[in-house]
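dumping this here before i forget
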Amino acid sequence: KITGATGEKAVVGDDLTATAQSSNVSTAVYVWDGQAATKDQQTYTVDAADAGKTLTVTITDDSLYGEIKGTIAVANNDTSLKSVLVNGETATTSDQAKYTVELDSTTDLTTLDVSAVVATATDTNAKVGTVTKDSSSDADKAVFKFTVTAEDGTTNKEYTVEVTKKSSTATQENVEKEVTLADGNDTITLTIAGGG
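structure:
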């Protein structure tokens, strides 16, 4: 059997101990996940590379029982996100910590609610925490924050989602209109702002 796990699954940092269930196993050699065989190496410390995997210990005893295997799962420490949607629009990221998205120019960011943000963790056993709207939000930018907790229950990562609006498609262009006086000799040029 394998003991020393924090819970049903082991987590990074746990010191595991493998024990043959028979007292007759006296010349055992223990191998943890393909590591070099070490006589009487019953213990193994779970490291970050083991997260999300299933560890196998092989106990070999030539005197009587031959080879015995034991396994234990290691909880994942993955806090990454599969996707972030805001009002159905996909947010993008360049640093895996801050996501950004532009919504339609008519969107009222002051009334955009936390329910508009839907985040999905990569690991289905990770938990996405409550989304909150930051006090820095205003009419030009809405800022949301939440934390993802990995399956191991201790690894956390905070994410920020910044929401802005697309520029209006209407542009203020200057329109030049030439007006020629009736006598044909003088020309007056008027500049009128677009839309005016």
